[in-house]
Design a protein that fits this description.
Elements: E1 4-11, H1 16-27, E2 32-38, E3 43-48, H2 53-62, E4 66-69, H3 79-102, H4 109-124, H5 126-137, H6 143-164, H7 172-196, H8 198-205, E5 210-215, E6 218-223, E7 232-235, E8 244-250, E9 252-255, H9 257-260, E10 266-268, E11 273-274, E12 279-280, E13 285-291, H10 297-310, H11 316-344, H12 349-362, H13 365-385, E14 388-390, H14 393-399, E15 404-408, H15 409-413, E16 419-425, H16 428-439, H17 445-456, E17 465-470, E18 474-479, E19 482-487, H18 489-494, H19 501-512, E20 516-522, E21 525-533, H20 540-549, E22 553-557, H21 562-572, E23 576-578, H22 586-593, E24 599-603, H23 609-614, E25 617-621, H24 626-631, E26 634-636, H25 643-677, H26 689-708
Parallel strand pairs: 15-22, 15-24, 22-23, 24-25, 25-26
Antiparallel strand pairs: 1-3, 1-4, 2-3, 5-6, 5-7, 7-13, 8-11, 8-13, 9-10, 9-12, 14-26, 16-21, 17-18, 18-19, 19-20, 20-21
Helix pairs in contact: 3-4, 3-7, 4-6, 4-7, 5-6, 6-7, 6-12, 7-26, 10-13, 11-12, 11-13, 12-25, 12-26, 13-25, 13-26, 14-25, 16-17, 19-21, 25-26
Length: about 725
C-alpha cells in the first residue's frame, strides 16, 4: 500500500511536552508510520497508510488539541489572538496587586480581591486548566500543569483562609498576576515566533496571482491556478512571471533575486528557462508554461523550507529526554520545598506554601523546547533569502561539523562549458569529423565541446555503427570498416594501442596547461588528439580561500588525468587532488575520507549523485534544477561557489545559537528553581511567586529573541 504524507497545523500547544504528547498519540494511531511535531512552528508532519487524514486529525483532537490541514496562505500571527485575553487579565490583576500592596485598611478587602481574581483564574486561566486536563488524560504533564497547580494552590488556599480566618494572609493577587504574566510572556513569545517564520511568509507572498495568456488567438487574463502546461503566457515589463517555462519569442532581463539571491538581472532570450515569481524588468516576451502549481521552483522552495523549519536536529533529542521528566521532577521539588520549610525548618504554613508555589511557577520547560527549533527556523529562513536551501535540521547540524570538502571539477570548480582549444592531426577537419560523429550520441560535456566545434567548422557528420560508451574512458564505434576509439590514455592502454613518444610529450604539454586531451585511434593507430579546456569559475579561488580560513581541508575529484587535474587545482589553490576517477568510483573516495573527517561533497548532482548521497552533507549546485533539488542536502540556487562557505558559516552560526539557547534555558532552570525554593533565604533573598512567574514568562521570550539575533548577523 502506498505511503501518504500530510502536513497539519496544530493549535493549543503551550510547550515542548505538548508536542511530545501529540507525537506519542499519533504513533499509537493505527496506520501512522512516522510523526514529527514541532512546537515552534505549530506543525506536524505525518506519514501514514490505510487511514484517512480525518482520522489523523481526530486522533490529535482526542489528545486535546486542534488540528487542520496546512494552508498555503501566509501564516497568521497568533499574537493577535492573545491581545484580548491579555488586556482582560491585566485589567483585573493590576488593581488586585495594587490593592493588596498599598491599601492596608479597606472594608471587605478580601472579598474585593476574590472578585477581581476569580474571572482571571477561570476565564483568562481556562486554557491552562484545559491544557493540564488534556495532559492528565494522556498520562503526562506540561507547562499548563505547572501553571494550573501553582495558581490553583494560591487561589484556593486564599479562599479557604478568607472563609476560615479573616485575619490570615491572602494570595489572590499572586494567582491573578501569575496568569497575567504568563499570558504576557506567551503574547511576546508568539510575536517573536511570528518573526522567526517571516521567511516562509515572504516566499508565499511572492506567488503571482494573475497570468496573461493566449487562448484561441486572444489574450485573456486568468488566475495562476488556472494556467495549464503548454499555455503561451505574455509577460510585460515590470510584471511577475506566473509559472516556470521556456521563452518562445522576445527577450528581456529578469530579476531573479527573490529566488537565487543574485542582485543583478539575468538576460533571457528564446530558448532560455524562466522561473515563476521572478520579475521581468524591460522587454516583453512570450513563454510556454512547463511547470505549474506544486511543480514550480517557488513551490518546491517553499515546501523545502517548510520541511526544514519543521524538522528536528539530532541535538533536540537531548532536550526531549529532559522535557519528558521535567514537569514531574518540578512538582516533586515543589512538594519537597513545602515539606522542608514547614516540617524541618518550622516555617509558617503560608511561608512554606509561597516557596512551593514559586518553585512550580519559575520552572520553564518552554524555554528548553524553543531552544533548537527557533534557531533552525531563523537559520534556514536566512539561508533561503540568500539562495541557500537547507533540507532539514539534521543536515544543518551536520554541516556545522564539516571539516573536509570534496569538489567535483567539471561544472563545479569550472563552469562546465568546455571548448576545443587545440586539434593536433595531419588533417584537422578529417579528425574532427570522425570525433564528432562518434560523440553525437554522447551526453558528456566534452562531447558537446567537440560537436560545437564541428558545427562551427560546418562539418557534415558521418554515420557510426556499433557505438559503445566505456564509462570513465571514452567511446568506440565503427566508421565503415574502420574501428575507431576516442578517449583518454586509459582507453588506448585498455585496447593495447601504442602511443608515440612525441605524441606523449605533446599531450603532457597540453595537460600541464590544464587542458583535457582526448586521443583518436583508427584501427589500433593513434591518428591525432583534441585538447579541450573548461573555464574556471570566477568565484572558485575566493571560495577556496574562505574555506581554508574556516579550517576546512579541501579536495578536488575528477576523471581528468593527474597533470590536467593538478593544473586546474593549482589555479584555485587546492592542494589535494583525486584524478582519473570514474563517476562510479567517486562515492568510494568520499567513503575513505569519512574515516577521518565529516565530509561535504559539492557537485551538480548530474554524474555525482551517488557521491553526494554518500557524503555527510551533499551540496548541489544547479540553479534550482530538478536534479540538484533531489540530490542535495544543501541546494545552492546560484552557481556561485562562494555560497559553499556561506552555507557552512550559516550552519555553524545556527548551531552556536542552539547551544547558547540550551545553555541559557538550562542555567535559568538550574539556578532559578533553588533560589525560588529559598536556597538564598539566609542572605535575605526569597523570590515571591509573582517575580518567579515573571522570570518564567521572560525566559521563553529571551530564547526566541536570541534566535532572532541571527537575522542581523552577516553571513557573507
Amino acid at each position: 500500500m502506498e505511503k501518504k504524507r500530510v502536513q497539519l497545523v496544530i493549535k493549543g500547544m503551550h510547550c515542548a511536552n505538548c508536542a511530545g504528547t501529540i507525537t506519542k498519540k499519533l504513533l499509537k494511531t493505527k496506520g501512522v508510520t512516522r510523526a514529527e511535531v514541532n512546537f515552534a512552528t505549530e506543525k506536524a508532519v505525518v506519514e501514514f497508510n490505510g487511514i484517512t487524514e480525518n482520522a489523523i486529525i481526530s486522533s490529535i483532537e482526542q489528545a486535546g488539541y486542534k488540528a487542520d490541514l496546512d494552508s498555503k496562505k501566509p501564516p497568521k500571527n497568533e499574537a493577535n489572538n492573545m491581545k484580548k485575553m491579555l488586556f482582560f487579565s491585566l485589567l483585573l490583576a493590576v488593581p488586585a496587586l495594587l490593592i493588596s500592596m498599598f491599601v492596608m485598611e479597606l472594608p471587605y478587602k478580601g472579598w474585593l480581591l476574590l472578585a477581581l481574581a476569580t474571572p482571571v483564574q477561570f476565564i483568562a486561566g481556562y486554557s491552562f486548566y484545559e491544557g493540564a486536563w488534556s495532559a492528565l488524560k494522556n498520562r503526562t504533564s506540561n507547562m499548563d500543569t505547572l501553571i494550573a497547580i501553582g495558581t490553583s494552590v494560591a487561589y484556593f488556599y486564599s479562599v479557604f483562609v478568607l472563609l476560615s480566618d479573616p485575619m490570615g494572609e491572602l494570595y489572590f493577587e499572586v494567582a491573578a498576576v501569575l496568569i497575567a504574566l504568563v499570558i504576557l510572556g506567551k503574547y511576546l513569545e508568539a510575536n517573536a515566533k511570528g518573526k522567526t517564520s517571516e521567511a516562509i511568509s515572504k516566499l508565499i507572498r511572492l506567488s503571482p496571482k494573475k497570468a496573461h495568456i493566449i487562448r484561441n488567438g486572444k489574450e485573456i487574463t486568468i488566475s495562476v491556478d488556472d494556467v495549464r502546461v503548454g499555455d503561451i503566457i505574455i509577460v510585460k515589463p515590470g510584471e511577475k512571471i506566473p509559472v516556470d517555462g521556456i521563452i518562445v519569442s522576445g527577450s528581456s532581463s529578469v530579476d531573479e533575486s527573490m529566488i537565487t539571491g543574485e542582485s543583478l538581472p539575468v538576460g533571457k532570450k528564446v530558448g532560455d528557462m524562466v522561473v515563476g515569481a521572478t520579475i521581468n524588468k524591460f522587454g516583453t516576451f512570450n513563454f510556454k508554461a512547463l511547470r505549474i502549481g506544486a511543480d514550480t521552483t517557488l513551490s518546491k522552495i517553499i515546501k523545502m523550507v517548510e520541511e526544514a523549519q519543521g524538522s528536528r536536529a539530532p541535538i533536540q533529542r537531548f532536550v526531549d529526554r529532559i522535557s519528558s521528566v521535567f514537569v514531574p521532577v518540578v512538582i516533586m521539588l515543589s512538594i519537597a520545598t513545602f515539606a522542608a520549610w514547614y516540617f524541618l525548618f518550622g516555617a509558617t504554613f503560608s511561608f512554606a506554601l509561597v516557596a512551593a508555589v514559586a518553585v512550580v511557577v519559575i520552572a520553564c520547560p518552554c524555554a528548553l523546547g524553543l531552544a533548537t527549533p527557533t534557531a533552525i527556523i531563523v537559520g534556514t529562513g536566512k539561508g533561503a533569502q540568500h539562495g541557500i536551501l537547507i533540507r532539514n535540521g539534521e543536515i544543518l547540524e551536520t554541516a556545522s561539523k564539516v571539516n573536509a570538502i570534496i569538489f567535483d571539477k567539471t561544472g563545479t570548480i569550472t563552469k562546465g562549458e568546455p571548448n576545443v582549444t587545440d586539434i593536433i592531426a595531419h588533417d584537422d577537419k578529417a579528425l574532427l569529423k570522425i570525433a564528432a560523429s562518434l560523440e553525437k550520441k554522447s551526453e558528456h560535456p566534452l562531447a558537446q565541446a567537440i560537436l560545437k566545434k564541428a558545427k562551427e567548422m560546418h562539418i557534415q557528420l558521418a554515420n557510426v555503427t556499433h557505438f559503445r560508451a566505456v564509462a570513465g574512458y571514452g567511446i568506440e564505434g565503427h566508421l565503415g570498416n574502420k574501428k575507431v576509439l576516442l578517449g583518454n590514455i586509459g582507453l588506448m592502454k585498455k585496447n593495447r594501442i601504442k602511443i608515440s613518444t612525441s605524441s606523449v610529450k605533446e599531450m603532457q604539454a597540453l595537460e600541464n596547461d590544464g587542458k583535457t586531451v582526448v586521443l583518436l585511434a583508427e584501427n589500433k593507430i593513434v591518428t591525432g588528439m583534441i585538447a579541450i579546456a573548461d573555464v574556471v569559475r570566477d568565484s572558485s579561488k575566493e571560495a577556496i580561500g574562505k574555506l581554508k580560513t574556516m579550517g576546512i581541508d579541501i579536495y578536488m575529484i575528477t576523471g581528468d588525468n593527474e597533470r590536467t587535474a593538478k593544473a586546474i587545482a593549482k589555479q584555485v589553490g587546492i592542494e589535494h587532488v583525486f584524478s582519473e576517477v570514474r563517476p562510479d568510483e567517486k562515492a568510494g573516495y568520499v567513503r575513505k575520507l569519512q574515516k577521518k573527517f565529516k565530509v561535504a561533497m559539492v557537485g551538480d548532482g548530474i554524474n555525482d549523485a551517488p557521491a553526494l548521497a554518500q557524503a555527510d552533507v551533499g551540496i548541489a549546485m544547479g540553479s534550482g534544477t530538478d536534479i540538484a533539488m533531489e540530490t542535495g542536502g544543501i541546494i545552492l540556487m546560484k552557481n556561485d561557489l562562494c555560497d559553499v562557505p556561506t552555507a557552512l558559516k550559516l550552519s555553524r552560526m545556527t548551531l552556536s545559537k542552539v547551544k547558547q539557547n540550551m545553555f541559557f534555558s538550562l542555567i535559568y532552570n538550574v539556578l532559578g528553581i533553588p533560589v525560588a525554593a529559598g536556597a538564598l533565604y539566609t542572605f535575605g533573598i526569597l523570590l515571591s511567586p509573582i517575580i518567579a512567574g515573571g522570570a518564567m514568562a521572560m525566559s521563553s521570550v529571551s530564547v526566541v529573541s536570541n534566535s532572532l539575533l541571527l537575522k542581523m548577523k552577516k553571513i557573507k
